[in-house]
Design goal:
Protein name: Chondroitin synthase
Largest sheet: 9 strands, mixed
Order of helices and strands: EHEHEHEEHEEHEHHEHHHHHH
Radius of gyration: 22 Å
CATH architecture of the largest domain: Alpha-Beta Complex
Strand content: 15-25%
Distance between the termini: 71 Å
Helix content: 40-55%
InterPro entries: Glyco_trans_2-like, Glycosyltransf_2, Nucleotide-diphossugar_trans
Structural class: alpha/beta
Number of helices: 13
Pfam families: Glycos_transf_2 (PF00535)
Number of domains: 2
Organism: Tautonia plasticadhaerens
Shape: globular
CATH topology of the largest domain: Spore Coat Polysaccharide Biosynthesis Protein SpsA, Chain A
Number of strands: 9
CATH class of the largest domain: Alpha Beta
Keywords: Plasmid
């Protein structure tokens, strides 16, 4: 039987300092991919320059900046392989990544997608090989597990092309990369089995960013994905049960409300907190936080300062 071919898709945006390492890791696989497709999503740095030495080994496309999902979708459209592997421009594959995952899919023809564990790699300190041992790798029929959280790292994914042709690509309406892939893996899990390789195959690079803005956007997009799944599958809430469905929605609405409250956007916070209360009307703290959004901002700041001062006075180290 002929071995299936692999198309590697590397989306990049202003990752000129990282992308060559990603390309090298794809070229250095023990089983060579059929093609490596790099989608440059409107980079304004030196990305095109640093990739020039690789032009004989990659297919390179440039497009106006449209976001990570659009770049990945263009890569999928251009790909000619039987299997699609995603590699973020700032991550690195270990040399046997493709070989191990292709073998896993051969052993599990019922699975549409295989993912794996990763190593965290701190770009600031250079510290690496900190294993992110997932408590539960998603395997088999795991559709309902995705309701609770996403446990699939995109750079570890190898997925059958025929599955993407049926399910569709990434939702370009979603802003945060972590939530864009969450939506796709969940849609795949609704119809197909997943396989999990219980070992790291990727160095996942950690680097800094604006944490509060990213967190708010991430939770908002996660809520969008959950509501989208509930609307597309009328049986999902019933099969999960009232309590689990409401607990998940409560947590998301509360998180959005709390972040907005903490950043002084009280009317916005109040709307989300009221949505949280509708899911858990007996939660006293949420009621108190909602009531606080009606206070003048100066009063809220004063209460915060009093709380911080009290905690400082109670600290035995001071």
């Amino acid at each position: 039987m002929l071995r299936q071919t692999v198309s590697v898709i590397i989306p990049t945006y202003n990752s000129g300092s990282f992308v060559t390492a990603a390309v090298e890791s794809a070229l250095g696989q023990s089983v060579q991919p059929f093609e490596i497709i790099v989608i440059d999503d409107g980079s304004t740095d030196a990305t095109s320059h640093v990739l020039k030495p690789y032009m004989g080994s990659i297919r390179y496309y440039q497009q106006p900046n449209a976001g990570l999902s659009a770049a990945r979708n263009r890569g999928i459209a251009a790909a000619m392989g039987d299997l699609i592997a995603f590699l973020d421009a700032d991550d690195i594959w270990l040399p046997n990544k493709l070989a191990l995952q292709m073998e896993t899919l051969e052993k599990h023809p019922e699975a549409a997608l295989v993912h794996s564990d990763v190593y965290f790699w701190d770009n600031e300190t250079g510290e690496r090989a900190i294993r992110n041992k997932m408590r539960h790798g998603y395997t088999g029929r795991c559709y309902h597990q995705f309701f609770r959280r996403n446990a699939v790292c995109p750079s570890t994914v190898l997925v059958r092309r025929e599955c993407l042709d049926r399910i569709g690509g990434f939702d370009e309406q979603i802003r945060r990369p972590t939530t864009q892939d969450y939506d796709l893996w969940w849609r795949i899990a609704r119809r197909y089995d997943l396989a999990y390789l219980d070992r790291p195959t990727v160095l996942y690079r950690l680097h800094s960013g604006n944490a509060s803005k990213q967190t708010l956007m991430m939770v908002e997009d996660e809520l969008y994905v959950v509501l989208k799944a509930l609307s597309e599958d009328s049986q999902l809430a019933q099969s999960l049960g009232f309590r689990e469905t409401n607990d998940r929605l409560f947590g998301l609405y509360f998180s959005i409300g709390y972040i907005n409250f903490d950043e002084g956007r009280f009317p916005t916070a109040r709307r989300s907190l009221l949505s949280a209360i509708r899911r858990r009307p007996t939660d006293t703290y949420t009621w108190l936080l909602t009531a606080s959004t009606l206070l003048p901002p100066a009063w809220v700041r004063a209460l915060r300062n009093m709380k911080q001062s009290a905690l400082f006075c109670l600290d035995p180290m001071t």
